[in-house]
Amino acid sequence: MDHKPPPPHVVVVGGGLGGLAAASALVNRGLRITLLESRPRLGGRASSFNDPKTGEMVDNCQHVSMACCTNLADFSRRVGIADLFRREPVITFLSPENRISRLRAGIGPAPFHLAESFLSANYLTWNDKLRVGYGLACLARNHDVRPGETFADWLWRHKQSVRTINLFWATVLVSALNERLEQMDVGHARRVFVDGFLLNRSGFQMELPIAPLGELYGARLETWLREREVEVRLTTGVRSIDCGDDAALQGVTLRNGERIPADFVVLAVSYDRVAGMLGETTLAGMPALAGLNRLESSPITGVHLWFDRPVCPFDHVVTPGRFIQWVFNHTAIQGRTATTSTSEVPDGGQYLQIVISAAYDLLAMDKTEIRDAVLADLAEMWPAAREARLVRWWVVTEHGATFAVRPGVDAFRPPQRTPIDGLFLAGDWTDTGWPATMEGAVRSGYLAAQGILDDLDRPARLIRPGLKAGVLAKWLLGRSSGPSGPPCPTRFVPRIDALDPADVAT
Questions:
Q1: In whole angstroms, what is the distance from residue 483 CA to residue 472 CA?
Q2: Number of H helices, E strands in the chain
Q3: Which of 183, 189, 292, 371 is packed most tightly, with the most Cβ within 10 A?
Q4: How far apart are CA 315 and CA 333, in angstroms?
Q5: Nearest CA to 70 among 433, 431, 449, 453?
Q6: Rounded to an integer, what distance in angstroms lies between the CA atom of residue 263 and that of residue 26?
Q7: Each residue's pLDDT expressed in tens, for the chain with a length of 506 residues
């Protein structure tokens, strides 16, 4: 009697977006898939926690996508969550003088589609706009970039002033890349502006989740995977990746001692956990991972505020030159209010989420101090914040939220394929061509899945191309988005790692 061999077994270690993307891309391909996650929920840093007073799901920090994130969009369609995003074709800015400006595409073709909005921005003087325009032209031409130079130094050499640096360049890039300008890689800064804002008319547009992250990347994804016969094991930590004496992949060993054989393993954990899972002997044969100890992290702080009445008149707002950087109105975006089962608040109120990226200066501050500084900023922006009663609040700080885009960082980011047959890496920290974003994480998972299918002689193109560059933009900038697509500045959206009780205050 002929016995049909069992299907190849793929073990995905880590239930963040990199691992989820790899698993989702491999379903319905004749494989047995096991997804292991040490936490009690999926989503990794894009997750929620339960408010113990109300039972309400609270996101660790705000996440958004952008239209240029073509692989994240593909992943969302693949797993059935695309309906939980809302496209925002206009980005609202509030100047230090409380004057409103809006960034929207005008009638011109890319790269001039945002020129009308830029020229009408009232937080910049005409002299500021001339300086910025000169800087953007130099950046688009990749002008005079010196190895190891920070973007702040590049800006000073290209005639930028303190005002333009603080009000324009920092406003976009600190949020987009979660790093200070004086510690930022020039290449990543360039790609945010050129590929994210200039190559395509719609690439800059935001897509906001209209549901908590715990629903978006947690419960829905778990149901979707299980319905497709993926074995999802939560609260299941992995101790090690097992290889034989001949460096052949054998499988994984769990923290409880259980061994799981595997033909393929996708290691989709944070970069600082990789060495411990591989062990010194295995790691010694993988020179591409030697740079992992050179990677550093950047912090993000998210502040959640529930008021007894409306405070913010916008769905979202960018706040140049202030302590806070972004305000997201979750009452308008997700229909969530300050009403709770434990508070004596009439139906209504407003729930705001505040984002402060590259929050190095906040690490030494008490959480109450952070809250009070945010409230003071809000009161200067909107007088209603002075009169509103704060019903409850959370401050969530992740000290190592993303890998830091320091000068030369890409040299330390390994590819997804490793020298060990069957072992692949996934995570936004791998070599994706993108900064630390949800798009980068999905790309890494797709690239790992592509490698597995190649090894099985079932090649498939999973990576989606970037948005098509406008004809004029392609001609003027001398390039297209290429097969890998533009890196999306989703660092407007901090991605927070596992919530540590020590990082939360109410």
A1: 19
A2: 16, 21
A3: 189
A4: 6
A5: 433
A6: 14
A7: 556 789 999 999 999 999 999 999 999 999 999 999 999 999 998 888 888 888 888 888 888 888 999 999 999 999 999 999 999 999 999 999 999 999 999 999 999 999 999 999 999 999 999 999 999 999 988 878 888 899 999 999 999 999 999 999 999 999 999 999 999 999 999 988 988 899 999 999 999 999 999 988 998 999 999 999 999 999 999 999 999 878 899 999 999 999 999 999 999 999 999 999 998 888 888 999 999 999 999 999 999 999 999 999 999 999 999 999 999 999 999 988 876 544 555 567 999 999 999 999 999 999 999 999 999 999 999 999 999 999 999 999 888 788 999 999 999 999 999 999 999 999 999 999 998 889 999 999 999 999 999 999 999 999 999 999 999 999 988 754 443 444 443 433 333 333 333 333 33
Whether residue 410 contacts residue 187, with contact meaning beta carbons closer than 8 Å, is answered with yes
Q: Which residues on neighbouring strands pair with residue 266, listed in sequence order?
A: 12, 424
CA dist 425 and 427 (Å) reads 7
Cβ contact 385:378 at 8 Å: yes
CA 356 to chain CA mean position, Å: 14
> Mind spelling out the 3-state secondary structure of 80-96?
CCHHHEEEECCEEEECC
Three-class secondary structure of residue 310 per DSSP: coil
HEC string of 416-471 equals CECCCCCEEECCCCCCCCCCCCHHHHHHHHHHHHHHHHHHCCCCCCCCCCCCCCCH
Which residues does 377 contact at the CB level (< 8 Å), separation at least 6? 319, 322, 323, 324
The DSSP code for 97 is: T
Residue 336, both tokens:
């969530």
- Looking at this protein, which amino acid is placed at residue 205? Q
Q: pTM for the complete prediction?
A: 0.91
User: Tokens 């300050």 identify what position?
Assistant: 338
Burial of 227 (0-12, 13-18, 19+ CB in 10 A): exposed
Q: Which phi and psi (to 5°) does residue 14 adopt?
A: 120, 125
Query: CA–CA separation, 460 vs 481, rounded Å?
Result: 21
Evaluate whether 42 touches 20 at the Cβ level (below 8 Å): yes
Name the region of 196 (left: φ>0; alpha: ψ -120 to 50; beta: rest): alpha
